[in-house]
Design goal:
The chain is α+β, with helices and mostly antiparallel strands and 141 residues long. The protein has one domain: Arc Repressor Mutant, subunit A (Orthogonal Bundle). Helix content is 37%, strand content 18%. It has 6 helices and 6 strands. A 3-stranded antiparallel β-sheet has the order 1-3-2. A 3-stranded mixed β-sheet has the order 5-4-6, with no helix packed on it. A hairpin with a 5-residue loop joins β2 and β3. α2 packs across α4. It is flat, with a radius of gyration of 17 Å.
Length: 141
């Protein structure tokens, strides 16, 4: 089974106004954003919404396959729209992240027997290691 997400129009037709506002704000961000940063941006944009509501809608948008969440080694969660197909190299020491602009598994075929009862929405891919600076510091170089 090849991964084929629904069209964006199909996915966004049943969103609430607040969910549309959140998704629009995520699409306007140049990078991933935490729930708290997103909340601040919405408030600054004159949207009256609580932090708990932002997180609840982010979860709903994830379940609809429109938003992905990436958890850093620090425990912080970062959100981005799924249509921004970025993957990462992350340092487990300092948390520095490098973006992989192309997806190395984009055309992977998944076993049909294992995915027949599963609707695929999106995927994430992240590599963890030590950046050059942290590696040198740990080696005492």
């Amino acid at each position: 089974m090849r991964f084929k997400p629904q069209s964006m129009v199909e996915q966004t037709s049943d969103l609430t106004t607040r969910q549309q506002n959140i998704l629009e704000e995520l699409n306007n961000c140049a990078d991933e954003i935490s729930g708290q940063q997103l909340h601040r941006a919405l408030i600054e944009g004159s949207y009256h919404i609580g932090l708990t509501t932002v997180y609840r809608h982010l979860r709903t948008l994830q379940q609809k396959g429109l938003v992905r969440c990436r958890n850093l080694p620090t425990g912080e969660a970062l959100y981005s729209p799924v249509n921004r197909d970025e993957h990462h190299l992350t340092c487990v020491d300092c948390g520095r992240t490098l973006v992989l602009r192309s997806c190395p598994i984009k055309n992977i075929e998944l076993p049909k027997a294992q995915t027949k009862d599963f609707e695929l929405l999106f995927h994430t891919l992240e590599f963890f290691g030590l950046c050059k600076n942290c590696h040198q510091r740990q080696k005492g170089i």
